[in-house]
Design goal:
Blueprint (H helix, E strand, L loop, with lengths): L3 E3 L2 E3 L9 E13 L4 E12 L6 E6 L2 E9 L6 E2 L2 E3 L8 E6 L6 E8 L6 E4 L11 E4 L19 E9 L5 E4 L2 E2 L8 E11 L5 E4 L1 E5 L4 E6 H10 L3 H12 L7 E5 L8 E2 L4 E4 L12 H8 L7 E3 L5 H20 L1 H21 L24 H17 L1 H14 L3 E3 L1 H11 L10 H9 L13 H14 L15 H9 L7 H11 L7 H13 L3 H14 L3 H11 L3 H14 L5 H11 L3
Parallel strand pairs: 3-13, 19-20, 20-22, 23-24
Antiparallel strand pairs: 1-2, 3-4, 4-10, 5-9, 6-7, 6-10, 8-9, 11-12, 12-17, 13-16, 14-17, 15-16, 18-19, 21-22
Helix pairs in contact: 2-3, 2-4, 3-4, 4-5, 4-6, 5-6, 5-11, 6-7, 10-11, 11-13, 13-14, 13-15, 14-16, 15-17
Bound molecules: ligand BES and zinc ion.
Amino acid sequence: MNPVLAGDVVDTHSFANSSEVRTTHVALDLAVDFAKKELSGHVDLTLERLKPDADRVVLDTRALEILGADASADGKTWAKTSFALGALDPVLGRPLTVSLPAGATHVRVRYHSRPEASGLQWLKPAQTAGKKLPFLFSQSQAIHARSWIPLQDSPAVRATYDAHIRTPKGLRAVMSAEMSEGLDATGRWAFTMPQPIPSYLIALAVGDIGFQAMGPRTGVYAEAATLKAAAYEFAETEKTLEVCEKLFGPYRWGRYDLLVLPPSFPYGGMENPRLTFVTPTVITGDRRLVSLIAHELAHSWSGNLVTNATWEDFWLNEGFTEYLTYRLTEAQFGKARGDMERVIGTAALKTDIGLAKSDDDKKLTRSTPAADPDEVFSSIPYERGALFLVYLETKFGRDAFDAFLRGWFDDHAFQSATSRQFLAYLDAKLLKTKPGLVSPAEISAWVSNPDLPADAVYASSDALAKVDAARDAWLAGKTAVTAMGGAEWTVQEWEHFFEGFPKTASAAQLQALDAAFKLTGSGNAIIASHWYKLAVDAGQTAAVLPAMTEYLSRVGRMKLIGPIYRALAATDAGRAQAQAIFAQVGSGYHPIAQQSVERIIKGS
Ligand code: BES
Ligand code: ZN
């Protein structure tokens, strides 16, 4: 392996020699071929020669077919140059070394992606809402951009980008960039991203996509069948944007639009700049899951503006974003709703700390880098990171902490930062303002001890405490299932209800619950996920199997399907069942979700 050195930063997840030669602009020219499941064309990289005598640029690739390479001193006249693909690393892919003649400041790589590209999902018409036309989308975070673009795939490298995309007629291309106006009958689309961004934020989707405005700066892209419901669900986004600006400074990306993906999208949301990608499973008709939008929007500050320099610093992206999200929810919808979300987040944190395979996985900063960022993904960097910031807010007061955070964003705008840089900044700008209030040992316990500090500040929620009381009274036989008030519960109350459900409940109790609230086949994907997991945990798989299999064939969001597969895999018979279901439905999952489910259900 040939880790990158960018300044003093080592990115063990990239082969790029970005301390010698650094990409400043990426220009894509690609055609979309649904029959071959290929993107084909070329990428031109503009290079800054930090070490002028470097005679090569090393790029990241995974499963790309490289057809040729050219070099240029002006980006206009090109001459062939030599290239070589290195040995395959199962996690990182292959380094692509392109020779740089003296004075060359641009390289062009001619290539096409392969059908199995880990960062692309090619959907059949049947997997879309409209059922008539195919759909393609990318998911570049963490290290999947390299599976559809040969580039320096490290979050420490920021570049502007532009793109020309050719699509089959009748299909629209959208990207995380400024878009060309109007549908072009020839299927040619042009994009520009004038702000420098890390490679994991380059994103593309192609499909039968329409647009509906929501506010002056906000709108939604989706298939026609989903557009109206999406625009209703997310109508409060413009307001969230205004609230966020008031708290953390101006929004620096122009527009903020959403793209609703088909249900196989493997995440809840992805903060692609100017165009958040979002799962349709949050469209429930009651606007109760919009904190997911607040989260992706908040990344416009924490993540997209100030970016984790390596995947070891992931909590700088997600912990800060989760903290911002709670603040936004509270400001927009009141403290009770914010606290509800915090309590649910903390429950997820405790579950994931329980599931963590090593002490390193429980920390904010690991002592040894993870081999594969996808494999160690959990709520720990999110919720532990947010709790750390809540702790600091509590110690220094909200006003001082807000000013500090805003300063962090302003002082590091359009840069990538390490945990070490953050901790030094924290020390200089906040801790030193009140010497002795928080000790270095207390900070270090937050970031590098496996256990949560005892003085963490947790939220509590009256509404959720009522749910606990109702659940426990019913389970103890004191009240009827219908007396719990479940018919009026929000999705958050249901989540909490399931989160605290004991494994000791009887089959009769589960049946009564299902009969009262029609959980099997629920149209709310979050409730359905919890219910199927609970039924499996309680040994009642047979009762839900047809509906659960249909669910697992349709939904590909890892957070919603992973717990069901994990519950099945807890017994030998269940694992065999999980393997059979996956054999039947797994081809409909995104490659990242396929890999994640395979890890869960593989025989040990
Ligand atoms: N950036 C993440 C999604 C992600 C993380 C993709 C790591 C690939 C690798 C996004 O902002 C996110 O956190 N999504 C959450 C939503 C949430 C916490 C509200 C999700 O998808 O569940
Ligand atoms: Zn996030």
